[in-house]
Write a structure and sequence with these properties.
This protein is mainly alpha-helical. Helices cover 66% and strands 10% of the residues. Helix 3 (43-61) packs antiparallel against helix 4 and helix 4 packs antiparallel against helix 6 (100-116).
Length: 229
């Protein structure tokens, strides 16, 4: 197996990885076509199976070991077969967040790098990233925490109480998550049993304190990470 052919397989795996699982990113969380198309009937399974076959063919062409091929087949098989999970909604959520293509592509890339090293442009990119200040991930998580708090304020009764004054409204506003009953979705197999998820009521002042502590901790970690760099 020539180095050029192996590196071509590495680049193909990188393209599928980005397309399947890294189209949209929010902080450390990413999602791609594999997760988005699962909500369109038929489209998700067609894309998932097609990308899986392409990755396996790329691995064979790139001279991957049998162990790597077995791992890739496991990741990709679970990605495709999860569409038939019997509990409604669970399959769609699993397909959305299970990054089987990314894990399979990573396994192939590690196999190739162990034999031939990374492609030249990738080696340069890694060297450039290593020279940058660290800790940006903590800052993104802090922004995500603040966005979640903003959503909690929007979903609470703060707006209904705002006529009393913002200070009083904030101190009295609560976010209420109602109790729900969830059926097992297996019909006669579970006798129509349901599970009750209890409701939850949280005051905005408590949420503000918890969010503030989380953001402060993340920013402290970000500063420490940059100093170590």
């Amino acid at each position: 197996m020539s180095m050029d052919r192996a590196h071509s397989a590495w680049r193909s795996a990188e393209s599928i990885k980005k397309l399947s699982d890294r189209v949209i990113g929010v902080g450390p969380f990413t999602i791609g076509l594999d997760g988005l198309l699962t909500w369109i009937p038929g489209a998700g399974i067609v894309y998932s199976a097609g990308a899986a076959m392409f990755l396996l063919a790329t691995a064979l062409g790139g001279g991957a070991s049998l162990g790597t091929l077995a791992r890739m087949a496991g990741y990709l098989g679970l990605d495709v077969l999860s569409s038939d999970f019997p509990i409604p909604g669970v399959a769609d959520l699993f397909d959305t967040f299970w990054q089987g293509h990314l894990m399979a592509a990573n396994a192939l890339q590690k196999d190739i790098e162990a034999r031939h090293g990374p492609p030249p442009e990738q080696a340069l990119a890694r060297a450039a990233r290593a020279s940058r200040p660290r800790g940006r991930g903590f800052g993104r998580l802090a922004l995500l925490a603040l966005a979640a708090f903003g959503l909690a304020v929007y979903l609470s009764d703060f707006r209904q109480l705002a006529g009393q004054g913002w200070g009083r409204a904030f101190s009295e506003a609560v976010l209420t998550l109602p109790a729900r009953e969830i059926g097992c979705g297996l019909g006669a197999l579970c006798g129509g049993a349901t599970v009750t998820v209890p409701g939850l009521t949280l005051g905005l002042p408590l949420l503000a304190i918890l969010t503030g502590l989380l953001v402060a901790g993340l920013l402290i970690q970000r500063g420490q990470s940059r100093r170590r760099a």
